[in-house]
Amino acid sequence: MKALVQHGYGPPKSLKVADIDTPAPGPGEVLVQVAAAGLGADVWHLTTGLPYPVRLVAGLRRPHQTIAGLDLAGHVTAIGEGVHDLAVGDRVFGTGLGALAETARARADKLALLPGNVGFEAAAATPISGVTALQALRDKAEVQAGQRVAVLGAGGAVGSFAVQIAKILGAEVTGVCGPAKADLVADLGADHVIDYTRSDFDTGAPFDAIIDTAGHRPLRVLHRALTPRGTAVIVGSETGGRWLGGVDRQLRAALLSPFTTRRLGSLIAAEDRAELETLAGYLAEGRLHPVTTPAENLEAAPEALQRWTKGTTVGRTVVTVQ
Ligand SMILES: NC(=O)c1ccc[n+]([C@@H]2O[C@H](COP(=O)([O-])OP(=O)(O)OC[C@H]3O[C@@H](n4cnc5c(N)ncnc54)[C@H](OP(=O)(O)O)[C@@H]3O)[C@@H](O)[C@H]2O)c1
User: Domain Enoyl reductase (ER): where (predicted)?
Assistant: First the structure.
């Protein structure tokens, strides 16, 4: 099968398409014939091994996982031992081990059935970014109908899901993005759009919740923009730092939060079937429309990942695999 492989850490162009053996599913796993796969921050971190603490998990000298990619959508083609809730032929989406390949292994509990009216490209955009947005809004910020929510990075992968899910939860949403993405964010349903090159998001304050996916604003700015019982969820931001890579604020937020009535928290999203099923419902009902930047095949994926580093992509980049 064709797969996008990496044998060492390096820039996006170090990813190469190669012919390799089709994997076999392990216990609790299935094989998925991948129709489409997502890429963005996650694939970039694992390809480059940056920031360095990534390597403590992914492999110190070289990546343990040589096939790139996590988000996927496709058909189940084989079932591993102990899997009783999926069958060959099922349309599924979720996260796998080496999604940027014609066939990928995936843990069955990291997949959900894909409703027949949802396309593979939309589905492949959803697992990591959609679950992250859902958990940030619903579980961390506990957003209620009528509350005021700011989404920083509203035209990005997580942010474009966060705007839409916050609206589904009944919030009044302020989307913060650069000028090129302002129309898109308005189309996603944001009640207010702030172009951060003209004025910053705190002009719309106070907010009951801030979902922070970009811009690396100081904690005091987030704190000041919250209502007295408000919550900021720091999802992430890219600073290019080789050691902390932007997570310094999450560490300081954990230290500061006990001393204030406002909650400053962070999130490590965990995709599982229940979360994917919630999102599958929204997709099937037409309430959630993933924003995607397309890449036409596996060969185009390294260049697409390079484009993501320039900040010119909208939503999640999705590679049509076959
Ligand atoms: N904690 C977790 O479990 C988790 C899960 C997924 C992702 N993440 C992290 O979350 C971050 C966002 O991920 P993503 O996939 O959504 O990235 P992304 O697709 O690159 O989106 C980031 C967006 O932020 C916008 N932006 C840049 N500077 C900004 C600023 N100053 N203010 C507001 N918006 C700004 C960018 O475009 P414009 O400037 O054109 O608007 C871009 O659309 C990354 O650091 C990623 O690693 C964490």
Answer: 10-319
